Amino acid sequence: MALxxxxxxxxxxxxxxxxxxxxxxxxxxxxxxxxxxxxxxxxDAASMAIGARLNATTESLKxxxxxxxxxxxxxxxxxGGMATIDNILVRMKTLAVQASSGNLSDTERGFLNDEFVQxxxxxxxxxxxxxxNGIQLLGDGGDVALNFNDLASGGGGxxxxxxxxxxxxxxxxxxxxxxxxxxxxVTDNSFQVSxxxxxxxxxxxxxxxxxxxxxxxxxxxxxxxxxSGGTTAIGAGENATLNFDELxxxxxxxxxxxxxxxxxxxxxxxxxxxxSDATFNNGAATFDSTDNVVTMEADNGQQLQQTVDFQVGxxxxxxxxxxxxxxxxxxxxxxxxxxxxxxxIADLTDNAIDTAANxxxxxxxxxxxxxxxxxxxxxxxxxQNRLDFAAQNLASTQENTESARSTLLDLDVAAExxxxxxxxxxxxxxxxxxxxxxxxxQNLLRLLQG
Length: 450
Description:
This protein has helices spanning 9-34, 45-100, 106-129, 174-178, 255-265, 356-409, 413-439, 442-449; strands spanning 131-132, 135-136, 144-146, 166-171, 190-197, 203-211, 214-222, 240-244, 249-253, 280-281, 286-287, 293-299, 307-311, 321-325. By secondary structure, the protein is an alpha+beta fold.
């Protein structure tokens, strides 16, 4: 090879090899620092593509496992509610059996009947209030709004305003007001307020509830003492609460309510009764007190869904979802039998066990209700067991998918460290040789100096 000073071929060769060694060492260092074999697509495009899909599947399976656990939690809440209802049904059957015996008088059966009816209402309350994140589990949830347009001038409830003493209304039992067996919604549900002159100077406030267009329940309380000068008269700026618990309603009343009670009390033979006097004047205002009906606006409650779908897989097929069926266990359903053709415990009415004959019939109905509940509870248990197996399968699938992804993408640290050491030696060698190559032109100077 000729000696020249224009180019330094040896240095160029050393520099090229040094650059290549440095690039390989840098890539090896990137793999070691990231812990993955495929840092970019240039390392292994196929493995990167497959690994990305496997990684997405793994993360999806983790979320599916959370879904399964949430589903199991939901079913556990449902099972807990059913366990409580089962205890109530056992007590109801005990009461029915006791009331069936001839050694009891009608008075004693009346005591038993009161508890029986209250327990039945508790079943409905539990069925209505048992939910998971707003999803009903045992029956329809009640959430009914009042139609406050009724309170506007000319509305059906225009007399139930602050001038008459009524500040606010509140629904305390939404499930009762959400009860609606026809297809017309809840707009045919309403309540009517009347204040009447009673006997011996009494003043009675009566609230009647209408469900499906038919008067359903009526509750009355004595409000005589609320009259002006009475022991519970309401002063200016003060309020009182009237609780009609059987109807699930409360009324917040102001000082004008005392004036209204006094006006009714001053009537003769009911001539100034609130609800019948078209020219009612309590001193605060003159209005037509026959506008005393407030309707329900809408049923905003959560309805019991027949099925709830849970995503228990990573795909978008029917096999990746599990549909869980829920069965209502309220008083309208329990006792009706597997085909729903027999009387339920709700059909026993408020005189469920007030006679021996009624009590004997109630024994049979409650026995069927217990069977109905156990069928619904067994259904929940079946899904719980199925979800347990689904969780086991997800865990196994996730484990194997992660192993497959690891095989493709995870770095063999020992092997890569050996490779990195080799590249480091080449870099060090390249640096040394480049230094030597840069010294070679110094030999030409000796020739020029000679």
